[in-house]
Design the sequence.
């Protein structure tokens, strides 16, 4: 899941990823080059559940200088080569994550979603050079619980959420706009968010019967990784279900930015069938990196940029963007 | 709120390119690509064997054969050759799969992006523009002469040497250097 999700007032945590074979690379490098113009990025608040969230500026700490910023590597896996294991706690000491919050660079904006609801604002610093959505920045997770696959809860506790009623406090917390077209509320299910999870609530009994961690944050699953049991339900986003249906010879599961093929004999990952960016959602601002027109070839005749409207593609949908405000104003087509 | 959703029938999975190739033999890879018949996975090309092998090692071959669409910056075999000795071998080991996946996905962008789209954004951006990979890594694109140059999170640079390889599920641009996330 997109772990860049922030709520207003939540601390942002910066970290960088490990280098590969070259030990000299890595560390807190900033993004190449300076920044032109578009610092007007904001991520709409998802109404995610940590109790701290909701206050405004009170929680913010001043942003430390880059030199002081501790960089810590979520993929301990990367350093000690242990493969991703469900339920294995590897809380190495000293891997402190530094809360990085405070004024970002001009990424404040007001946003309403397609229903006209106010979406709380978040600040992001787009210039910190460590903007990795997938698994690198488990915003809002307390240190020690920022293990991937636990959504800020140890796996044992995550399991307890299944079969339980949705916490009353989350009843109205709709899931992030970037995922609303993936998991729309239906006659059978509601989707709500809180404490780092998306909850699927079965309307027949009002119990949670599916969990999707928002802050999985460990990077992509590797071939052979077992699929974590607490998250083992058919959660392929709606627009992709005809491609990767349930009850076929393979199981398909979404997690952390990809749809995986699971070998039912082993319950382990046997392939990545799709990569989902999770960047665009109605009511949010067009993120940095989407200035470039990316509409699939077959749709370019129909959807091309003008001064009145831009079009951008993400995860099976084409979105319309207001070029002046950079607000994503509508989903206008589904291509899968 | 209901969104108007239209499904385009034209975006169907490609029919077997092999049969067509037999009929119209010899059909070059370039011709097939131009016709958009092959997927990215099928059409990586003779100079991208290492990328193909790496993708397969982490299960991304399936991704690049799926509906996409993606835009992939594909380092050529020569590009992999520029890595430090042993680096590629290390990356290909099973225990390195998470890192390898991270590196490869850093080269994959959402949607279909042509060189002209990047050029336009560079112009509008006063000389550079950001790109963002599916995994969230950012890249900066700029022009050097008539070439597009991509700078990665670690400050490394790659030149796009062959742009706009069109496929049924996206676009391939060949680059001369492996990109490294920060």
Sequence:
């Amino acid at each position: 899941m997109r772990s860049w999700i922030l709520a207003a007032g939540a601390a942002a945590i910066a970290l960088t990823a490990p280098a590969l074979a070259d030990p000299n690379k890595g560390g807190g490098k900033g993004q190449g080059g300076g920044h032109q113009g578009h610092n007007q990025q904001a991520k709409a608040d998802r109404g995610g559940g940590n109790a701290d969230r909701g206050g405004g500026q009170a929680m913010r700490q001043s942003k430390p200088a880059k030199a002081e910023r501790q960089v810590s590597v979520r993929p301990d896996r990367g350093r000690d080569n242990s493969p991703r294991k469900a339920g294995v706690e590897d809380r190495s000491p000293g891997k402190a994550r530094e809360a990085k919050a405070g004024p970002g660079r001009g990424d404040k904006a007001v946003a309403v979603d397609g229903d006209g609801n106010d979406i709380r604002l978040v600040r992001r610093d787009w210039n910190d050079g460590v903007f990795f959505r997938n698994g690198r920045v488990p915003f809002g997770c307390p240190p020690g619980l920022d293990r991937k696959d636990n959504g800020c809860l140890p796996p044992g506790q995550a399991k307890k959420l299944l079969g339980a009623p949705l916490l009353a406090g989350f009843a109205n917390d709709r899931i992030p706009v970037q995922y609303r077209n993936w998991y729309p509320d239906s006659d059978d299910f509601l989707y709500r968010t809180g404490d780092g999870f998306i909850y699927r609530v079965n309307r027949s009994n009002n119990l949670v019967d599916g969990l999707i961690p928002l802050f999985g944050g460990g990077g992509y699953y590797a071939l052979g990784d077992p699929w974590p049991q607490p998250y083992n339900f058919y959660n392929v986003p709606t627009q992709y279900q005809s491609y990767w249906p349930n009850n076929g010879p393979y199981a398909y599961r979404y997690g952390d930015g990809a749809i995986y093929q699971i070998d039912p004999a082993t319950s382990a990952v046997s392939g990545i069938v799709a990569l989902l960016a999770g960047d665009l959602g109605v009511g949010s601002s067009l993120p940095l990196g989407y200035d470039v027109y990316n509409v699939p070839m077959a749709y370019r005749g129909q959807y091309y940029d003008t001064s009145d409207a831009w079009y951008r593609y993400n995860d099976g949908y084409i979105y319309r963007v207001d070029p002046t405000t950079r607000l994503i104003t509508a989903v206008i087509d589904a291509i899968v | 709120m209901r969104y108007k959703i239209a499904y385009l029938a034209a975006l169907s999975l490609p029919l077997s390119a092999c049969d067509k190739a037999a009929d119209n033999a010899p059909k070059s890879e370039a011709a097939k690509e131009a016709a958009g018949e092959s997927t990215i996975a099928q059409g990586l090309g003779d100079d991208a064997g290492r990328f193909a092998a790496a993708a397969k090692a982490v299960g991304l071959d399936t991704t690049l054969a799926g509906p996409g669409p993606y835009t992939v910056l594909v380092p050529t075999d020569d590009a992999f050759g520029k890595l430090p000795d042993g680096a590629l071998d290390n990356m290909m080991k099973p225990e390195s799969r998470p890192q390898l996946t991270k590196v490869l996905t850093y080269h994959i962008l959402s949607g279909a992006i042509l060189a002209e789209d990047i050029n336009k954004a560079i112009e509008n951006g006063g000389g550079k523009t950001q790109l963002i990979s599916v995994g969230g890594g950012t890249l900066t694109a700029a022009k050097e002469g008539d070439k597009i140059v991509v700078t990665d999170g670690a400050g490394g640079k790659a030149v796009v040497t062959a742009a706009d390889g069109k496929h049924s599920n996206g676009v391939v641009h060949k680059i001369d250097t492996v990109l490294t996330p920060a």
About this structure: Residues 194 and 261 of chain A are 27 Å apart (CA to CA).
